[in-house]
## 1
Amino acid sequence: MSDHPSSLSRKLPIITTDRLALSVTALMISVAGTSWAATYYLMPLMAPADTMSMGVASVVSSLSPGSIGLFELVWTVGMMAMMFPAIVPVVVFYLRMAAPAEPNPSVAKAVGTPLFLLGYLGVYAGLGLLAYLAVYAAVFVAPIFPVLVSFAFLAPGLVLVLAGIYQLSPMKVKALSYCISPLGFFAVHLRKGLSGSLRMGVSHGIYCVGCCWAFMLVMLAVGAMSLLFMAALAAVIAFEKVIVRGALWFDRTVAVGLIGAGFVVLVFPALVVM
């Protein structure tokens, strides 16, 4: 029996008539849609129109609390836009199996669900902070060492190649298996109480980051957090987690696409502005 994540859930239906699933799907997609709109209006505040050509450097201006806070706001709202549609099955499973097992199911559903999502987003907010600090160091500290500046044009291509290689790594496969199999995740990480809901959200967020951090690195280093690039990655992530559920052919296709794009950018670095 294959241990690839697609074997864990290939028998699950893609389309359902279940009212709970449909309601959660509609709500999560509505929140995601609102988040896309919010990201559209917040992005110019982080990167003014006259600096958009500067690439990712335009969204990392300083280490001031205001600059970091604005980046974290845009990043977290962007994660809601990109990731909420992909975690609908997990939220449905929580509401159907975990919440009813609580002493007060109604409280677990009304309060525990937001706490679960808060824990999930908290992990992505932490990833965003690390990304901001890394880009700041690369943009504002690296020039102190001229030898590093000479290799800066290689960064976008190398990021694409790294993301493609990671797409087929055992760590990616393991993290993805928990992302696409709610039963597998909750069987291992089920916790009681509202604090348990928060902890489960954090745990699932860690698996999700383990699955998608390379995509986010590509979005930041290559796409400069553009809305079109974010939308394209969101489509890939949703397709991977919800539609094909980690199918090996899809993983390989994405890996080949990323590695191929990486080599193209390495040969023609002017295609990407850092």
## 2
Amino acid sequence: MESRRVLVRINMDVPLENQKILNDNLLKTAMPTIDYLIENGARVVLCGHMGDAGGKVVPELSLEPIAAWFAARQHIGEVYLTDSCVGDAAKSVIAGLREGQVCVLENLGFHAGEIKNDEKLSRQLASYCDIYVNEAFSLSEQVLASTNGILKHARIKVTGLQYAKELKALRKFLGKPERPVMAILGGDRIADNLELLESLLGRIDSLVLGGQMTNTFTAATGGSTGKAVVEEKRLPLARDLLDRTARKNIKLILPSDVRAGITADAVTEYAAGEVPESANIFDIGSHTEEFWKQLIRKAGTIVWKGHLGMAARADSGTYTVARAIAGAAAYSLSLGEESAEIIRTLGLEKGFDHVSDGGDATIRMVEGKTLPTVLAMGNAQTMK
């Protein structure tokens, strides 16, 4: 890597407010790769997009806050931001980089060729590097000049450390996971998890469902859910899933009790299906928590996605289950931004074998879909 120009495609699409980054997890996940390159004397060129600029220059979507974030890392030092992602000025900045220095190319979204996978833009980006590194697994569903087109022109193609870690974890789960395999899915609507549910049915031994969507399953079996939202149009689907899991010998586990009341601060525990008409359901109950913790301790592999109750607080069922998974001996994998945020809020990262930051791309891969960039990166080298 020493003295070589290395172009690293990362996901820079972080939330901003008044030019301040609200959540920097996407940037943090790229740091091990960037640190490795700096330590090995590479001349590092970072590229990415933020927001939906539609191929036009939108000043408020400039990557200046991103460049400032990297410059604030004590070991990086000064970070240069180009005035455009391509052009003579960008080329000059890259040519002037010394070993271990970093520059950020201005927002790729300002160039119409990025989302069109434009050949000219792909070739220009490739000309800026000796080595191309993809550290943007979360964009693998898209076909972009900076993730796909560039692969035709880059001489050496490498997967970033986090990219490789994401693939390894997914392939482990999709291959021959340690049994019994448990999936824990939460969320508000069955539709949000439908394709994932369908794909998991052929891989798991037990399915634990939480969150607001369980109200529909309770209603499908004739239970009372009070004022809780029920997806009336999904009742036949809920009954079908209950039937199919039974026929496949998959244990479908719903909450046995819930915390319900007029407000989240004044709840009573009721048996699931016996909630008074005047009450809202806010979370899973204590008996459910204890039973689920027992199941988690016996699992060989656990995949978890989404909140399991509607109360996001320290004593919530979601937090209780997250801690149980982190303390279990099972191989554990979390899916989706929500689960990752909960894990990091609780400081439980070390308790999980893999906390996915691949977003929807990871979920699509678990669903069995082919991701264009993963396919295109098939012959890429891995970072040593």
## 3
Amino acid sequence: MDLTFAQRERFRFVESTLLWEGGIQRARVSEVFGVARNHVTKDLRDYETSYPKSLVFEPRQRIYVPGPRFKPRFASDDPAEYLALQLTYAESGSTAMLPLLAGGPVPTMAVPMPDHGITKPVLQTLVQAIRQNRGVEVLYHSMSANQPTRRTLWPHALVHTGVRWHVRALDERSQEFRNFALQRMEYPTLALSQSPKSSEDDEDWQTSLMLEVIPHPALNSHQQQVVAREFGMRANRHGPVWSVPLRRCLIGYFAQRYGLDQPKAKPPKQVVILRNLSMASPWFLPGKAR
């Protein structure tokens, strides 16, 4: 079936709604995508023609439900993706998310986080610098300095640590690749100069390590099974493990977020540890990240 991008997006929405909610009405598709109901009817007819017995129309409820041969061909059946989209909408409230949400937002609440504090000029300038392989000058508020300083950076990637946004950049002052928090930047200026080093030279970015997160050995067998289930761990010859490939420059943030950098902490405060602690510990915070 030769489809336009818009049709693929509508089919993805239809499939996702059928998958997670069990049914969909034409009116919902029409509302979200701003197309006439007759247009939606044609879309669904084309879908049924291409994928027989994937849709069944229930005339009493005037709703389409999954047929005996239904399977998602355009949508994802990954629960993590569905929940991530619901969370993003809950946190942002952006209507731009609606076409991505199956049937619309499910009532969802999230523990509030501080306003990210990132200004539009900072983000615009950094994205342009990354795209154009150019430098950027910013006024940077560092925790290790008594006052803000003017810094020249050559960024090559954005990084989210689970709490804050950073930019991975070559620092002119130290001539090292480091992480710089976007919230601490002011008065950005796009520089003409291109980076004297390539992102390929950023060893801590280019090199990844496999971290092995396991249930805390102080837990009893049942508790370890609960933790393994919560973290989606898979069993290997050593027992349940969450294997996480991470760039070296992100290991410190990951360890801090899950308390893996506190090997003396015990349950119930700490329920997971790193099996390969000695391999990962050189990259714990404070360290390469700034």
